[in-house]
Design a protein that fits this description.
Layout lengths: L1 H12 L5 E6 L3 E2 L11 E6 L7 E6 L12 E6 L8 E6 L2 E9 L4 E4 L8 E3 L5 E11 L3
Parallel strand pairs: 2-4
Antiparallel strand pairs: 1-3, 4-5, 5-10, 6-7, 6-10, 7-8, 8-9
């Protein structure tokens, strides 16, 4: 009988706690831009507990080496972000994950990958802050 009890205990330790998040199956572009409106919200279960409002996948390589194509990022919605923060932004109707840079002369969205040009934020730009990237999850 003792053997059976031991086995039950061993099994229960292998259970992974999953946490549920709102998931927009609509990547934030780390590159060309993706639209984030009118997107169906799904639920996704992940084995990490992060204080975030929703999760979106990354598409593209403009935020490498820190963020890779296929990574999931946790977003805390926010209307204002400080200089240097990585966030998700609506830029001329498309959603991007970029670093917000604000200096004396100008503000722009910056890619960590030097192959991509900065995206200037001007009074003419249709620009909204969607939220801050608070964490990321990579499969494997």
């Amino acid at each position: 009988k003792n053997e059976e009890e031991t086995k039950i205990n061993e099994v229960s330790e292998d259970i992974i706690q999953l946490y549920s998040y709102d998931y927009y199956d609509h990547p934030a572009s780390a590159g060309t831009g993706q639209y984030l409106n009118d997107v169906r919200v799904e639920r996704i279960e992940l084995p990490v507990d992060i204080d975030a409002d929703f999760v979106i996948p990354i598409k593209g390589d403009s935020m490498e080496p820190d963020y890779h194509d296929g990574d999931l990022v946790f977003i805390q919605t926010s209307v204002d972000l400080n200089n240097g923060v990585i966030g998700v932004f609506n830029y001329d109707g498309d959603a991007y994950i970029k670093q917000l840079v604000i200096d004396k002369e100008q503000a722009y969205l910056h890619s960590l990958n030097p192959a991509y040009k900065d995206m200037p934020i001007t009074p003419e730009t249709d620009f909204r802050i969607i939220g801050e990237v608070v964490d990321l999850y990579r499969e494997g």
